[in-house]
């Protein structure tokens, strides 16, 4: 099940590594940074914006 991330929240969230904007990927239910190639998990509806918790994407 995909988490609903409000547009206003996506506008203020940024990747902690690159400070680039994040986008929500509903298929994986993660917040993705295209610049740093990291995907941040969403647990219980809360984005976990820790680089140590992110997974690398191609």
Overall average residue pLDDT:
94
Strand content: 25-35%
Helix share bin: 10-25%
User: How many β-strand stretches?
Assistant: 5
Quaternary class: single chain
Which ranges are low-confidence, i.e. pLDDT below 50, for 5 or more consecutive residues? none
The domain count comes to: 1
- The whole-angstrom Rg is 10 Å
Output the CATH class name: Mainly Beta
Describe what is shown at a glance.
With 58 residues, this protein is mainly β.
Give a verbal description of the structure.
- This protein is mainly β and 58 residues long.
- The chain has a single domain (7-56), classed as N-terminal domain of TfIIb, CATH 2.20.25.
- It has one helix and five strands; from the N terminus they run αβββββ.
- Strands 1, 2, 3, 4 and 5 form a five-stranded antiparallel beta sheet that branches.
- A hairpin with a 4-residue loop joins β1 and β2.
- The longest helix is centred in the N-terminal third of the chain and has 6 residues, at 7-12.
- The protein is globular and about 25 Å long.
